[in-house]
Design a protein that fits this description.
four-stranded antiparallel sheet; alpha/beta; about 425 residues; globular
Length: about 425
């Protein structure tokens, strides 16, 4: 049971806006971009993991050059389908053609000399740039695989959108924008104004977000892990949508809370902070490796109420000790991650439609198992970072039909194009007395 999107650890993937000015594109840097892109486009692992491996094998790349490589790779992943269409007139391996288009489109035609393109290549680049994206089919323009475009379009129609294609255009465009860099203020260590002042003293601009009282949005891509405030545990990198989900759970001091799919513990730590480290928070997961990543974060956070709780499955006999005892159970279910495509754009190319059916079976099984832990009068929250109805409302409706002892659900829906955050869905039930 893996957790949904909690944001990212500092320095593991790019976020925020692309660089404002063109980088110096030396031949070695261009070659590094092409090699890194070729590695990532194999789609055999998450993009950030592939990049970490690439940088480890190419330690001579400086921080700025690594930033250029990462930004180019993630830009290509976001726009891959449109870039591949436009790059048909170019020569050479596909990673090189995609990289050139990304660099020229982001930094302007003046980048072409830096690419050392010949006359024929330069002409072909200009032809590629002359393609009007507005004239391309919507799935190509929005760089969505056909199956995902069709599913999102059908949902827009079912929601009663007057012009479903226009509704999807808004969402699709939002998914092509790099994710912002948000922080969660750790209320066990500091407050938002104090943290903002400390960041400013280090030359980092951060603005408070009205959507959540613990959220700050950072300008640029600073090296946060090098800050004293990070070492003190004053903040965690966490998308504001994820923070809003934790607020929606409404934990209270002194409660027994179970984070049933805790992963590396981003939401676990947020729950503990809202509870002022009182009560007990159980961080459950089937992955020991993910729970291991929680340990240094837990030590920095100052939370004393969190207990990691390894499971072999959602039916682990160890869960019997918690049956009927929890005031709140959060099921941040494994899902397609389509709400995080700004942050994890490779997911739309790695995910296959049949995998959603397999996820549905797991989601229902995990939710049913977690419901057994909720005490009378307690709350159960089901959440995903998915945009797909069959992972969200369909799962909730099926659960409610099988469990009449729970109240009608209350919903939370967060969309990248409306809320400028990762996409989240959540439903909250109360178990009858």
């Amino acid at each position: 049971m893996s957790a949904g999107a909690d944001g990212i650890e500092p320095g593991t993937a790019p976020s925020g806006e692309a660089e404002a000015e063109a980088p110096r594109l030396s031949p070695p840097l261009l070659a590094a971009i092409e090699r890194a892109l070729a590695d990532v486009l194999r789609l055999d692992r998450p993009a950030d993991a592939a990049l970490r491996a690439f940088f480890k094998a190419n330690e001579r790349l400086g921080r700025r050059d690594r930033g250029v490589v990462a930004e180019t790779v993630f830009d290509v992943l976001r726009h891959r389908r449109r870039y591949a269409h436009q790059a048909q007139s170019l020569r050479g391996p596909l990673p090189r053609r995609l990289a050139w288009l990304s660099l020229v489109l982001r930094f302007g035609p003046g980048t072409i000399p830096s690419l050392r393109a010949g006359a024929e290549d330069t002409e072909a680049l200009h032809r590629a740039l002359a393609v009007d994206p507005g004239g391309l089919p919507q799935p190509v323009r929005l760089s969505l695989p056909d199956w995902l475009h069709a599913e999102l379009l059908a949902q827009a129609q079912a929601d009663g959108a007057a012009v479903p294609h226009a509704a999807l255009e808004s969402l699709g465009r939002a998914l092509l924008v790099p994710a912002p860099l948000d922080l969660r203020v750790n209320l066990l260590r500091t407050d938002r104004d104090t943290l903002r002042a400390a960041l400013a003293a280090d030359g980092i601009e951060a603005v408070p977000l009205e959507a959540c009282p613990t959220a700050l949005r950072v300008r640029g891509k600073p090296a946060l892990e090098r800050l004293a405030a990070f070492e003190r545990g004053d903040f965690e990198v966490q998308d504001v949508g994820s923070q809003r989900l934790v607020e929606f759970c409404a934990p209270r001091r002194g409660q027994t809370v179970v984070d049933f799919c805790a992963g590396a513990g981003g939401k676990t730590l947020a729950l503990a902070a809202l509870m002022r480290s009182s009560g007990q928070v159980y961080a459950c997961d089937v992955s020991g490796a993910r729970l291991q990543r929680l340990k240094p974060r837990l030590a920095r956070s100052g939370a004393t109420s969190v207990q990691p709780f390894g499971l072999d499955s959602e039916h682990d006999p160890k869960l019997r000790r918690l049956a009927g005892r929890a005031d709140l159970v959060l099921v941040d279910a494994p899902c397609s991650g389509t709400g995080t495509l700004r942050r994890n754009p490779e997911l739309k190319w790695r995910m296959l439609p049949a995998a959603i059916d397999e996820l549905n079976a797991r989601q229902s099984s995990i939710l049913g198992a977690a419901a057994r832990l909720v005490k009378r009068g307690g709350a159960l929250v089901y959440a995903t970072c998915s945009l797909l109805r069959r992972e969200n409302e369909a799962v909730v409706e099926a659960f409610s039909g099988r469990h009449p002892g729970f109240s009608d659900p209350v919903f939370l829906r967060i969309r990248p194009d409306i809320d400028d955050s990762d996409g989240f869905f959540a439903a909250r039930w109360v178990r009858g007395e």
